[in-house]
Structure formats: structure tokens, C-alpha cells
Amino acid sequence: MRSFGRAAFGTWVLATLWSCSSDAPVVDGKAPASRADRFMVAPGDLQGTPLKEAWTYEHDKEIAGLCYDKGLILLWTADNDLLRLDPATGLPIEYRLRLKGPLKCPPVVYRYPSGATGNDEIYVVQHGDSLSCIEAETLLELWNEKLGFGVSSKPAVGEKIVYVTAEGGRINTYRKENRTPSWTYSAGKSVSASPVLAGDMVYMASEDGNVYALNAVGGWVNGRSWIGKTRARITTRPVVYQQRVFAASDDRLLYAFEANDGGTAWKFATGRIVKDQPHACSDTVFCLAVDLESGEHVLYAVNALNGKPKWKRSKPGVEGRTYDEPGVPGVGAFLCPGKELVYVLAKDAPEIWALGLADGKLVHRIGLTRRPDFVVSHDAEQGRDDAARGLVLMAVKKGSGQGARVVALKERRVYRGAEPAPKAVEPKAAEPETKEPAVKEPAVKEPAAEEPAAEEPAAEEPAAEEPEEG
Fold first, then answer.
1. Would the pTM of this model clear 0.70, i.e. be above it?
2. What residues contact residue 374 under an 8 Å CB cut-off, 6+ apart?
3. Contact 154/194 with Cβ under 8 angstroms?
4. Which residue among 77, 149, 448, 470 has its CA within the 20 to 30 Å range from the CA of 464?
5. Rounded (10°) CA dihedral 76, 78, 81, 87
6. 40's torsion region: left (phi>0), alpha (psi -120 to 50) or beta?
């Protein structure tokens, strides 16, 4: 049986589920039109912005969760149905799976590499201690294994082994072919974040403040495994990017460990607690930190190579830069990177912001008719999957008197060429037409032809500002 959609939106896109408050007011105090209520975007609010409507899917039952993993969009309901939506149309495939109970954590998708035998799989943890393997194309349950311990986070999956963390701080591994144990390793305290499989290593972060690098086949291997130490607990999933492992500790530091030996490459002080998984793309690590006293949310963009801040999304920015934008609240959630922008959900308003990837400046505020209950955070395969850049997924679990719905927005392919360029070029383009009669005079012709060359720097002024952003 063939595997489903191996090319759909690329491969290996990490996604995490974010729960949001749903009691935000309507934008500008206006009651949403019927179409706007369906799309969560008021008519016309996307005009002139980098995002466009992709699709909306309405469901007649309450949505319990939504995730996007390796090109698959998965939705599960409050009455325990698992559905898979077509990324191109938003329509569900003809199959659905009746779950045995509520999901402990979001599902995990595994796609077999080209040339390998096997159909793509989905792994779910049910009842907190039961692991199921599901065929991705048909949503047929292939097997279910009672683990005998409480699972603390979603598993990591390789071609032959599944990695599952227990509530007591132990990582257990099982062979796919017969579900027999492979190896186990215990951390000092609980592991509340999912492990990460990268190459021949698996990385996990523990509440004992350590990051553990273990061999994917044998566990702890002398000379290959290592422990990276921080000064407080770690509750967020580490990120492996550009041969480094990034972990956010409750000591208010973001750490970069060398993936080969665990040496500390750099530390970045956030001054706040990072409560959500960092994301990485475009040589940048993004982390959303929270001040527990004031409640302020700050999004940091940190240089992945040297640990120096590129920008931070708060009123006082990096190196004296300020964002004097009245009425702009803090960042509520990281959504995804675009080609030259980063999309985030506002903290205290039903809005999506488009921020400059290079400098964090607010480019657009896109009003929503209501605040979503769920949004999906992903980094588009750490920026390598162009098809997933600018893909915004959000859901309302249950509308007032209406069904639940999922909304997908997508970045316009030609946004930058279609918006800024005409504003700079249009007035200049009309001038040569009025001077056409002067072309008959040879002496006047050459200066007239040189005028557009003198005007070109003025037309390129928007591009000239970009070096100043760094």
C-alpha cells in the first residue's frame, strides 16, 4: 500500500499544540458577518497583507486538539475521534479512527525514508499508559501496547525504535517489529518534555536541569553520550539545529550545547522563564519568555551561531532600539516563519502580527473576529520546507450555536513584489511617457535617458533600509 502524500508540505515539520483563551472581544467592537465568523477573519482584513485564506473546515462536534507534523494535519474531537485533513483543501479523508480514550499528548507522525519498506505511521498515547501505532493513509490501528507506566510526553519515533518517556524520569525504548524493550535510561528527575531524535542520537531534557545525549540504538555509550548541565529545571523540548542542541532552562538562560560533545557554545540571558519550545530557522533561535510577576511576554530572536540577540519583541528592543507602537500588546504565541516575516498571535487581542524576520518590526496587524482556542506552532522544518513557510493553522473548538472549525491561512508567494515595489516605481514609470516627444532631439535624448538611472536609487529606498535592520 502506498504512503500518503510524501511531498505534501515537505517533511519533518515539528509542530506543537498551544491552548489559548477564547473569550477575547470582537475586533473594533463590530459583530462578525456570517462569512467572517466562519473564517475567523473579517471580510477584507487580509487585503494588502502577506496572508490569504487557504481553506476552512467546519466540524459538527467539539474539537479537543489540532496538530501539524511532517506534512499531516491531525484533528481529534472531545468524543474521541481522530481525523486527518487534506493540507491542500482542509477536507477530511474518508477514514477516521475511534480512539479508546482522551489523548495524553498530540500525535506523532513518522514517515519512512525513500527506499525503506513500510507505510507512514501515526503514534498516539491513550489513557496515559497505552501506545498505539496507526497507519497514516487509512487510520487503521496496527497495534496497541499497554506500557505499564504513565507516559509523560509524546514519544519520538525512528525507523526501528520508539522512544517513550515515563513520568518518573526514565526513557524507555521499544522495537517496532515486536514491541519488545530495547534499552532504558533514567534521568535524575521527571522528564516532562518530548525527546528529540536527530541522526544517531536522541536528546532529552529533564527537570533535574540536565540535557542528556544518548545513542539511539544503545542508550548511554561512553565517548559518545554526554550530559549538558544547567542551573534549574528544564520543562520544554530541546531543539537540535546546526549541530547544536538548544535548551531553555528555568534559570532564565537559553543554552547552546555542541551536539558532538556537549560543550557549552554560549548562553543567552532572557531574564524571564521560557515556557514553550524554542523554534529555529534562518540562523535564528526564537523563544517566547514570560515575566511571572508582570505577566509580560517577550519574543526573542537570538543568533544561533554566537548567541547574540538580533531583536526582541517588547517596547525596549535590542541595543537601544524601541518599538513605539501605541496599543500593541505582547506576543501570545509563535505561529510560524514566512519567507521574510515571522507570524505570531497577539497576547491580549484577537490579532495575528507579521513581524520582520530580520528586525522584529511590526509590518501588519491582521484582525480576527474572535480569538482561536488552538493554534499550531511550527518552524517549517527549521526553515528548509518552503511549502510550510507562512502556513498558519488555528481552530475554534466550538462556536456559539455553530460547529467547530479549523482555519488555514497561507503566505502570498508574491507579496513583497506586489506591495512595496509599485508604490516606489509607479510615479517614476509615468515620467518617461510624458517626455517621449523630446526623444526626437538627439542632444536632449541622452540626458533624458540618464534620468531613470538617477531615479533608480529612489526606487530602491525600501531595499536600502534592510542592511540597517541588523
1. yes
2. 17, 18, 19, 20, 63, 65, 66, 394, 395, 397
3. yes
4. 448
5. -30
6. left
At residue 434, the 3 state secondary structure works out as helix
Amino acid at 217: V
DSSP letter string, 173-235 = EEETTT--EEEEEE-SS---S--EEETTEEEEE-TTSEEEEEETTTBS-TTT-EEEE-SS---
3-state secondary structure of 374: strand
Amino acid at 427: P
Cα dihedral 378→381→383→386 (10° resolution) = -100
Interval 267-315: pLDDT, tens: 999 989 998 999 999 999 999 999 888 888 889 999 999 999 999 887 5
3-class secondary structure, 431: helix
Q: pLDDT tens for residues 416-461?
A: 533 333 333 333 444 444 444 444 444 444 444 444 444 444 444 4
CA distance 349 to 365: 10
Euclidean distance between CA atoms 343 and 99, whole angstroms = 33
How far is Cα 5 from Cα 440, in angstroms, rounded to an integer? 61
